[in-house]
Amino acid sequence: MSDNNMKQLVVAIINQAVKDWEKADKQLTTNPTYRQALRTKQEISEFFQGDWYFFLCDLNPDFVHQNLQEQYV
User: Fold this and answer.
1) The domain containing residue 25 runs over which residues?
2) pLDDT tens sequence across 36-51
């Protein structure tokens, strides 16, 4: 796999996490006790703080996670 392909894969993974966060947040707007959406947001929060995220990219996870929280609160 070329470096360019690897970068595209990393971007796709991060983008999917953001999309999943957005979807869960919208679901919680209409149903604040929806367990699957709460679980999804928790898993994404853990992803941004986990080893896998640090392996994938150099973006500050606190910055990304905080922006998600501020944008979708």
Assistant:
1) 3-71
2) 999 999 999 899 889 9
Determine contact, residues 22/69, Cβ cutoff 8 Å. no
The string of pLDDT tens digits covering residues 56-66 is 888 777 777 67
**DSSP for residue 72:** T
In the DSSP assignment, the letter for residue 64 is: H
Specify the DSSP element, H or E, that contains 43: helix 35-49
| Distance in angstroms (rounded) separating the CA atoms of residues 3 and 31 | 42
How many domains is the chain partitioned into structurally? 1
Between vectors from CA 65 to CA 47 and to CA 53, what angle results, nearest 5°? Answer: 30
